[in-house]
Amino acid sequence: MLEILPETDDNTLIVKASAKLTTHDYEEIFIPQLNQRLNKLGKIKVVMSFDDDFNGWEAGAAWDDFIFGVQHRHDFEKVAVVAQQQWLQWATKIGSYFMDGQVTTYTPDQFQDAVNWVKQ
Q1: Tell me, what CATH number does 36's domain have?
Q2: Whole-number Å distance between alpha carbons of 90 and 82
Q3: Cβ–Cβ < 8 Å for 54, 15
Q4: pTM, whole model, 2 decimals?
C-alpha cells in the first residue's frame, strides 16, 4: 500500500509504503504524482518511507518501478529512503549508482531529518 504524506508539497513527493506495493499503487498513485511534478518542475525530490511491515513488491509493481527508474534516472534531484530493513538500505545504495541525483538512507527515527534534507 502506498500513501501520500501531508509533508508533500509542489516540488517534493513524500510517500509511505507498507505491506506490499501493488501495480495499482504505482500506476494510479506514485507514477502520476511523479509525472505531475516532472512536467511542472523538470526535476523531482522524493522521500520514500517504508513501514516495518513492508515486504516487497508484486511482480507488476516491481516492473513499473524498474521501468520508471530507468526512464527517469536523470530526473531525480534528491531521494531519501527511510527504512529499518537493512536490505532496503543496501538496495538503495546499489540503486544510487544508476541515478544522477543525490540519494541517501535514514532510519525511521530520522524521518524528519530525511524530509528536511530533501527539501533543502
Answers
A1: 3.30.750
A2: 12
A3: no
A4: 0.90
